[in-house]
Fold this sequence. Notes:
Elements: H1 3-31, H2 52-79, E1 85-91, H3 95-100, H4 102-109, E2 114-118, H5 133-139, E3 144-146, H6 149-159, E4 164-170, H7 175-186
Parallel strand pairs: 1-2, 1-4, 2-3
Amino acid sequence: xxxxxxxxxxxxxxxxxxxxxxxxxxxxxxxxxxxxxxxxxxxxxxxxxxxxxxxxxxxxxxxxxxxxxxxxxxxxxxxxxxxxxxxxxxxxxxxxxxxxxxxxxxxxxxxxxxxxxxxxxxxxxxxxxxxxxxxxxxxxxxxxxxxxxxxxxxxxxxxxxxxxxxxxxxxxxxxxxxxxxxxxxxxx
Length: 188
């Protein structure tokens, strides 16, 4: 299979995962909408009531499957491109998600040749879980922990060598480490 067809397949898998999440969100919006639905005699019987705990469990499972599947697909596709090493700079998104997906992150990130973990992007949360990216780094052999994005960029610069590909992965501001790395390279 060619690099482009591998990439196209990965993109399609990511789109499929996104569509599944969107469908689940639409369904939940419909189920929990505060607006009463018009009665339709020909409509199918009402769906059984779900508890909030059941909804949370389903969403957590779908999120876990979708998010870690994206990481797995990205690393597998990148590995197939023939680079000497795949370096993944990863910034987990939120403390609660990092705690919930901890083992999954460890398992999937091990697929990279080198992993550089920067601190968790808190978004709207306070760290009530008592978790850090340092905890992930302790479970991924050979990984490095960087407390700041500047430190992440400097670390990536020191690790990079010809033939490597460096991925910045996460939902926060990890992209700035990549931008800084490009700035290092161009002499800015």
